[in-house]
Specification:
The protein has 16 helices and ten strands. By secondary structure, it is of the alpha+beta class. Mean pLDDT is 95; it is low at 1-9. The N and C termini lie far apart (77 Å). The protein is elongated. It has helices at 16-32, 46-57, 66-69, 77-80, 101-105, 122-141, 157-163, 211-215, 233-239, 246-252, 261-264, 291-295, 299-305, 315-329, 334-341, 349-373; strands spanning 37-41, 86-93, 112-113, 146-149, 168-169, 175-176, 184-191, 221-223, 226-227, 255-257. The chain has a four-stranded antiparallel sheet with strand order 1-2-7-4, sandwiched between helices. It has two domains: 11-96 and 119-191, no CATH class; 228-363, no CATH class.
């Protein structure tokens, strides 16, 4: 395929043949911009809208009010962005090289940060690439309507990606690709161009496997493709603004920002491709740092070291909350107790509550250790 195709100067003049060639060219441009896959979907999400409504009615969104407040704009792209006829859906791998996820989860004195959040924030990087893709299209066809999204508006990202042929919904409700697993980001370009659409990914390859449901530490996957966010560690550590329910604190282990368990045990994760994006390389040893080291960060250090990171949005208070739980779950040691005592009078009810819980857990472990030796 040539690197450039000559199109009519106005998108209004595009013929059926022009649009088909444009669609193929868009996919090539997307790959050249670093997207591993590009697909095109129409805007009919009626089936997914019904599923979302059932999920919301069940209260599975917890305190994520934004999941409901936009009404049908989330499931009807033309309402969010008038004139939208097609959605160009893209995915980008994010797993850095030499990251030992299972090893860190097995070392309870270390902090586990979800693999997607180890490097720089993906939102800006992907939006910039999508904007570049739009400019490339514009150079070929003239002015056209578009808007780029990367987890930044009421958009049904996984549903659109499935319709665009990028993968199927696994039992953990994640989008799975047979050649790439699920460790990738999604982005969209809403457009008014009547491009030909790709076949949706209809076949589901999970079969009788339920490894994700079995592995979920808190039992948050309550049915195939249905996650109760209120139990999910990713929700508890990132989205929940208040206290983490005590019933889930021990199950959190050393997971202080997000949780990847349901993805790590998936058989298709073995096909995950290592990212080529330098921005996704771990920063500040977040892929292997100790809980004590991260808990010792002052607020200024937190703000400095999470600049340009998705972690920044939870704020310092919730960061300490999460780490306190991790320290409570860590093996007993004088160093852990000392770190917790140093935050015992921190000027935040939320932090103090979780520090008190963690100290009680540490004392319980210390007493059990003494009793065993007696």
């Amino acid at each position: 395929m040539p690197s450039s195709i000559t199109f009519p100067p106005s998108s209004d003049a595009l013929t059926h043949d022009h649009l088909h060639r444009l669609a193929e060219q868009i996919k090539q441009w997307g790959r050249e911009l670093g997207f591993q896959q590009v697909g095109i979907a129409d805007t009919d999400l009626a089936a997914h809208e019904a599923h979302l409504n059932r999920w919301l009615e069940s209260g599975y969104h917890g305190e994520m009010a934004f999941m409901a407040k936009h009404g049908t704009k989330r499931t009807r792209p033309e309402e969010l962005e008038p004139g939208t006829q097609r959605v160009i859906s893209v995915r980008m791998d994010y797993l850095p090289a030499e990251v030992e996820s299972a090893k860190v989860l097995g070392q309870p004195h270390r902090a586990y940060v979800s693999r997607y959040a180890l490097g720089r924030d993906y939102h800006k990087l992907m939006r910039k690439r999508l904007a570049q893709l739009a400019k490339q299209i514009e150079r070929e066809v003239g002015k056209f309507g578009f808007r780029a999204f990367v987890d930044s508006a009421p958009v049904m990202e996984r549903a659109l990606a499935q319709k665009a042929g990028l993968g199927w919904f696994g039992k953990n409700a994640m989008l799975l690709n047979p050649k790439a697993g699920s460790l990738f980001f999604l982005g969209e370009l809403y457009t008014d161009l009547p491009l030909p659409v790709d076949a949706p990914f209809e076949q589901e390859h999970c079969g009788s496997c339920s490894a994700c449901r079995t592995a979920c530490p808190t039992g948050a996957i309550v049915d195939d493709k249905v996650v109760d966010s209120r139990k999910c560690i990713s929700y508890l550590t990132i989205e929940l603004p208040g206290a983490i329910p005590e019933e889930y604190r021990r199950a959190m282990g050393n997971r202080v920002y997000g949780c990847d368990d349901c993805q790590l045990v998936c058989p298709f994760t073995r096909f995950t491709k290592i990212t080529q994006e330098a921005d996704f390389t771990p920063r500040h040893d977040l892929d292997r740092a100790s809980l004590i080291a991260l808990f010792s960060w002052g607020e200024e250090e937190f703000l400095y070291k999470t600049a340009g990171s998705p972690i920044r949005r939870i704020g310092y208070e919730r960061w300490l909350r999460n780490l306190a739980v991790g320290l409570g779950n860590a093996p007993w040691s004088d160093a852990v107790e000392a770190a917790l005592w140093a935050r015992r009078a921190y000027p935040s009810d939320l932090v103090r509550e979780h520090v008190a819980w963690a100290l009680a857990e540490q004392r319980r472990k210390r007493d059990a250790r003494i009793a065993t030796r007696a």
